[in-house]
């Protein structure tokens, strides 16, 4: 009489925002997401997120693995691997346990390398702060810009935790 519940496979792409489509609001998914259109709002995914060449995300993106061939204007948290393809552009900070930036890929912001356990805890903390931000975190967010001031591509991406690439070159 009742249908048997099936387990959702995070490796299977379940949601597609197609080219020419626009979505506004928060997306939360237990399976993978492919973005070929435009999303404004946070993307929180237990599976993988693939942003195609024509995809644009004006949001914070959190997922197991992220492949970026389009554009993201916001912070990215990958519990596993973040890959910025040669056509990919990331304007925001990133946190990942593994990072690859292909030649031609663009990254402007701060990078933080995490082990997989720390990345998962960070994602949970960020989600909790989004739901109920504390007064002290509002003051911190108001005082700091949304993106780091460093910029670069593959050469500056692995500069290490909390190191601004611009500051390194100024000191040099």
Structural notes for this entry:
The strands form two sheets. Strands 1, 3, 4, 6, 7, 9, 10, 12, 14 and 16 form a ten-stranded parallel sheet that branches. The protein has a seven-stranded mixed sheet with strand order 2-5-8-11-13-15-17. It has one domain. The protein contains four helices and 17 strands.
Distance between the termini: 71 Å
User: What overall form do the CA principal axes indicate?
Assistant: globular
Number of domains: 1
Q: Classify the beta-strand content into a percent band.
A: 35-45%
Query: So how many helices?
Result: 4
| Averaged pLDDT | 76
Query: How is the biggest beta sheet arranged?
Result: 10 strands, parallel
Order of helices and strands: EEEEEEEEEEEEEEEEHHEHH
Structural class: alpha/beta
Q: Uncertain regions: pLDDT < 50 for 5+ in a row?
A: 133-161, 168-172
Question: In percent, how helical is the residue content?
Answer: 10-25%
E-strand count: 17
Radius of gyration: 17 Å
What is this structure's SSE topology?
Elements: E1 13-17, E2 22-24, E3 27-29, E4 32-35, E5 38-40, E6 43-45, E7 49-51, E8 56-58, E9 61-63, E10 66-68, E11 71-73, E12 76-84, E13 89-91, E14 94-101, E15 106-108, E16 111-113, H1 116-131, H2 135-143, E17 151-152, H3 154-157, H4 165-171
Parallel strand pairs: 1-4, 2-5, 3-6, 4-7, 5-8, 6-9, 7-10, 8-11, 9-12, 10-12, 11-13, 12-14, 13-15, 14-16
Antiparallel strand pairs: 15-17
């Amino acid at each position: 009489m009742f249908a048997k519940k099936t387990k959702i496979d995070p490796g299977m792409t379940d949601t597609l925002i197609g080219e020419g489509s626009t979505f506004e609001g928060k997306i939360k998914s237990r399976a993978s997401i492919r973005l070929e259109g435009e999303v404004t709002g946070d993307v929180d995914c237990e599976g993988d997120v693939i942003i195609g060449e024509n995809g644009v995300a004006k949001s914070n993106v959190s997922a197991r693995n992220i492949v970026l061939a389009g554009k993201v204007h916001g912070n990215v948290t990958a519990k596993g691997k973040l890959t910025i393809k040669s056509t990919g552009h990331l304007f925001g900070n990133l946190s990942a346990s593994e990072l690859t930036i292909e030649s031609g890929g663009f990254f402007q912001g701060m990078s933080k390398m995490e082990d997989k356990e720390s990345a998962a805890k960070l994602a949970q903390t960020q989600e909790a702060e989004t739901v109920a931000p504390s007064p002290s975190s509002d003051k911190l967010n108001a005082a700091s810009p949304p993106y780091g001031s460093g910029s670069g591509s593959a050469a500056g991406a692995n500069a290490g935790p909390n190191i601004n690439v611009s500051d390194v070159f100024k000191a040099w």
